[in-house]
Specification:
There is one protein chain. The protein contains 15 helices and twelve strands. The protein has 384 residues and is of the alpha/beta class. It folds into two domains: 14-32 and 284-383, Alpha-Beta Complex (Aspartate Aminotransferase, domain 1); 41-281, Type I PLP-dependent aspartate aminotransferase-like (Major domain) (Aspartate Aminotransferase, domain 2, 3-Layer(aba) Sandwich). It has a seven-stranded mixed sheet, with helices on both faces. Strands 9-12-11 form a three-stranded antiparallel sheet. It has a two-stranded parallel ribbon with strand order 1-10. Helix 1 runs parallel beside helix 13 (328-339) and helix 2 (41-52) crosses helix 10 (266-275).
Amino acid sequence: MAIGSKLPHVGTTIFTVMSRMASEEGAINLSQGFPGFGADPVLLELVGKYTRDGYNQYPPMSGIPQLRRRLAEKTELTQIYFPDPETEVTIVSGATEALFSAVTAVVRPGDEVVLLEPAYDSYEPAVTLNGGVPVYVPLNAEDFSVDWERVEKALSPKTRLIMVNSPHNPSGYVWTEEDIDSLATLVRDRDIYLVSDEVYEHITFDGRKHISLGSHPELRNKTFVCGSFGKTFHVTGWKIGYCIAPSDMTVEFRKIHQFLTFTTVTPIQYALAEYLEEPNRYLSIPAFYQSKRDLFAGGLTRTGLIFTPARGSFFQLASYGHLSQIGDRELAERMTRRLKVACIPVSVFYSDRRDDKFIRFCFAKEEAELFEALERLQGLPEIL
């Protein structure tokens, strides 16, 4: 029997493809967004402690109370508002689940959802699987900021949701207070929900501060804030994230969550709850990653690529159009095979595969690996 795919245009993600190619070619993998170093040994020991102490059965569906409380306290410290741990905070199995559950909670067949492109690849499938209609709005080509006039023109009576991402993947753009205020003005008199992907909330540079949509008094009442402990604490394989939303929206969110994954691994929740007792464990993260960004950006200046240092996230975009007009995917594959450095072609973040000759590197790696990758990238002109 033919299944009849609900996602006929979706194949294996480019992140999996490039990581596999990097492995096969023995290349340094700067493609998929995961750290190339381990977590704090203190956190690892806490996981072991709670595993050994018998915290291995189902936790509450919404997450253990201790972790929800710690997350609310972290939010109050960094974003100056305190979500109710009981009714507004939910622990989930990764930010991708949070995003999917949030979209599923509010999007109905025929609803329009605004996606700002380039966009992370899980957004559109979540919309499509729920019968929604993606409406694509390109970000400004110069710096990947939001063109608010374009966004307003894209809205219609059918608009149900706008997907937001800051710090942005793949560009590293970080929303400003002006961006937040512009969004608030846009949705003020409209029945539009917001899903805010904030997984890189603690990875911002040059003194910039991440501003959560939840910190804005008006936007808070319309927003699902989705975050990731995995990204924050270098443990992406643990797949543990969260959603913060108003109580009425959380009720609907949890209805989806409980039949999607039901709950999230128990000993890790207890470990994170204890680990979060010390705020410096997340407040020190910007400086940690800025040193890696600065190292990588410094070396990238010697490759012939053009770039603006990322404002946030652990990704660096670079333009090569002044050197060659070959396709970005072809270049990514050629770099992996010949230079032994894997990256991501940015065209995959666009619905129409628009190719503006950008590639994306992940610099969340050990210094020695970054130095070696930068050395190999000096040979880029020879393969173009």
